[in-house]
């Protein structure tokens, strides 16, 4: 899914931006999800501020 679906959807530009995350520990899922969202958001902001958005 991550190497094919996400880049394809993001390339089309019709459905906003997508990312992929897999969680295996139900007790850490919320914390891991927050970390993943923050990392992807920071990556997106970094790309925009450096002209790669």
Could you write a compact summary of the structure shown?
The chain has 53 residues and is mostly helical.
Give a verbal description of the structure.
With 53 residues, this protein is an all-alpha fold. It has one domain (5-49). 55% of the residues lie in helices and 0% in strands. The chain has helices at residues 5-12, 29-49.
| Overall number of domains | 1
Radius of gyration: 13 Å
Order of helices and strands: HH
Number of helical segments with 4 or more residues? 2
User: Helix content range of the residues, please?
Assistant: 40-55%
Mean pLDDT: 87
Class from secondary-structure proportions: mainly alpha
Shape call: flat
Please give the number of β-strands: 0
Amino-to-carboxy terminus distance: 22 Å
Proportion of residues in β-strands: under 5%
Main sheet makeup: none
**Uncertain parts:** none
